[in-house]
Specification:
Blueprint (H helix, E strand, L loop, with lengths): L28 E5 L4 H12 L3 E6 L18 E5 L12 E4 L6 H6 L1 H22 L2 E7 L26 H21 L3 E6 L2 E2 L10 H10 L4 E4 L5 E3 L1 E2 H13 L6 E3 L4 E3 H11 L6 E4 L14 H7 L7 H26 L1
Parallel strand pairs: 1-2, 1-4, 2-3, 4-5, 5-6, 6-11, 7-10, 8-13
Antiparallel strand pairs: 9-12
The chain binds nicotinamide-adenine-dinucleotide and uridine-5'-diphosphate (2 copies).
Length: 345
C-alpha cells in the first residue's frame, strides 16, 4: 500500500481540469519542489507576484526557510516540509520540479540520496502530475553533456558522461529524470517541459556551498584568497538568476517540450571569473591554486538558438552587471547589515 504524507491533506482540493492554453488564467495552483532553495525561491517570488497560489515542497536539505520567510503571511503561499522521495497527494495545475542539491559539494555528500531524489523523486512528481493532469517542468542541467566533445553545446548533443564517476549520481540521475519525463509524456500523454540549466548565480545562493561564484565572492569579502582549482583555464558560462526564472516561466507557459538550454552564452575561464570578482570586490584579492576535483568538465557554453527562436528568450544580465547584485546580498549575510555598511565604503 502507498505511504502518503500526512501533510497531503493540508491543501483543499478544488475542481480540477486543465485550463486550455491561450485562455487568460487567474490563480493557477503551482507546486515548486525545491522552492526553499536558491533558484526555487526566486521563482516563487515571481509566481506569487503574478497572482498564483504556490505550494513549496522542500525537505530543507540545502534550502533555507529564510529564502521564503517573506511569504509566510501570504494566504496564497504554503510550505510543506516533505522529501520528494516519498509520494505525496496534492491538487495542482503546474509542477516546477527543482528538488535536488545542485552544488557538487552537496550532491556528492550522499550520492545514493542524490540518485534517489533524481529518480524516485522525479517519478513521484510525474505520478502526481499524471493523476491530476498537471503540466510538469523538469529542471535538468548542462551536466547531462558531461565533459562535452561538442562546443558550444546544442540540445541535439547526447553528451560525454562518465557513468561510474563521483559526479555520476547527479549527471546520470538527471539524465534518467529526463528519460522518465519523456516516457510519461509519450506513455501517459503528460504535458512536460525540460530545461537544461547552465551555471546560475545570484542572491540567496548558499554562502559555503562550494560552487565557484559563491566561493570567490565569499572569499573576496572575507579577505581570503580566491581558490582556483586546477590551472583555472576550464570555462563555464554564468547566468544571473532572474534570467533563468524568466526562461523557466516562458518554457512552462509555452507549447514546446524541449529540452531547452537555459544559460548565458558568455564564456569565462575561472581565472577570468576571478578577475571580474577582483574588479567588483577587491582588486587586491589574492589567487591560490588548488588541485582540481575528479571529472571536472573542461568547458561549457550553451548554444541558446532554440530558446531564442521558440521561447523568445535570451539572458539580459551580464556577469559584470549581475555580480554586484549578488555581492550586496553576500555582504549583508556575511557581515550583518551594520558591518556591511561599514564595509561598503
Ligand atoms: P539548491 O540546492 O539551492 O536548491 C535545491 C532545493 O531542493 C533545496 O531547497 C533543497 O532543500 C531541496 N531538496 C533537495 N533534495 C530534496 C528532496 N529529496 N526532497 C525535497 N526537497 C529537496 O539548488 P538550486 O541552485 O536552486 O537548483 C535548483 C534546481 O536547478 C536543481 O534541480 C538543480 O539541479 C538545477 N540546476 C541548477 C543549476 C545552478 O547553477 N544553480 C544548474 C543546473 C541545474
Ligand atoms: N504518486 C504520488 N502522488 C500522486 C500520484 C502518484 O506521489 O498523486 C507516486 C506514486 O506513489 C508512484 C509514482 O508517483 O510511486 C508513480 O505513479 P504512477 O501512477 O505513474 O505509477 P504506479 O503507481 O502505477 O507505479
Ligand atoms: N572551481 C574553482 N574554485 C572553487 C570552486 C570551483 O576553481 O572554489 C571550479 C571547478 O573546478 C569548476 C568550476 O569552478 O571547474 C565550476 O565549478 P562549480 O562547482 O561552481 O560548478 P560545476 O562544476 O557544476 O559547473
Amino acid at each position: 500500500s502507498r505511504h502518503l504524507s500526512s501533510s497531503s491533506s493540508s491543501f483543499t482540493p478544488m475542481a480540477m481540469g486543465r485550463v486550455p492554453l491561450g485562455l487568460k488564467r487567474k490563480g493557477l495552483r503551482v507546486v515548486v519542489t525545491g522552492g526553499a532553495g536558491f533558484v526555487g525561491s526566486h521563482l516563487v517570488d515571481r509566481l506569487l507576484a503574478r497572482g498564483d497560489s504556490v505550494i513549496v515542497v522542500d525537505n530543507l536539505f540545502t534550502g533555507r526557510k529564510e529564502n521564503i520567510l517573506h511569504h509566510t503571511t501570504n494566504p496564497n503561499f504554503e510550505m510543506i516540509r516533505h522529501d520528494v522521495v516519498e509520494p505525496i497527494l496534492l491538487e495542482v495545475d503546474q509542477i516546477y520540479h527543482l528538488a535536488c542539491p545542485a552544488s557538487p559539494v552537496h550532491y556528492k555528500h550522499n550520492p545514493v540520496k542524490t540518485i534517489k531524489t533524481n529518480v524516485v523523486g522525479t517519478l513521484n512528481m510525474l505520478g502526481l502530475a499524471k493523476r491530476v493532469g498537471a503540466r510538469f517542468l523538469l529542471t535538468s542541467t548542462s551536466e547531462v553533456y558531461g565533459d562535452p566533445l561538442q562546443h558550444p553545446q546544442t540540445e541535439a548533443y547526447w553528451g560525454n558522461v562518465n557513468p561510474i564517476g563521483v559526479r555520476s549520481c547527479y549527471d546520470e540521475g538527471k539524465r534518467t529524470a529526463e528519460t522518465l519525463t519523456m516516457d510519461y509524456h509519450r506513455g501517459a500523454n503528460l504535458e512536460v517541459r525540460i530545461a537544461r540549466i547552465f551555471n546560475t548565480y545570484g542572491p540567496r545562493m548558499c554562502i559555503d556551498d562550494g560552487r565557484v561564484v559563491s566561493n570567490f565572492v565569499a572569499q573576496a569579502l572575507r579577505k581570503e584568497p580566491l581558490t582556483v582549482y586546477g590551472d583555472g583555464k576550464q570555462t563555464r558560462s554564468f547566468q544571473y538568476v532572474s534570467d533563468l526564472v524568466e526562461g523557466l516561466m516562458k518554457l512552462m507557459e509555452g507549447e514546446h517540450v524541449g529540452p531547452f538550454n537555459l544559460g548565458n552564452p558568455g564564456e569565462f575561464t575561472m581565472l577570468e571569473l576571478a578577475k571580474v570578482v577582483q574588479d567588483t570586490i577587491d582588486p587586491n584579492a589574492r589567487i591560490e591554486f588548488r588541485a582540481n576535483t575528479a571529472d571536472d568538465p573542461h568547458k561549457r557554453k550553451p548554444d541558446i538558438s532554440r530558446a531564442k527562436e521558440l521561447l523568445g528568450w535570451e539572458p539580459k544580465v551580464s556577469l559584470q552587471n549581475g555580480l554586484p547584485l549578488m555581492v550586496q546580498d553576500f555582504r549583508n549575510r556575511i557581515f550583518g547589515d551594520h558591518k556591511a555598511n561599514a564595509n561598503a565604503g
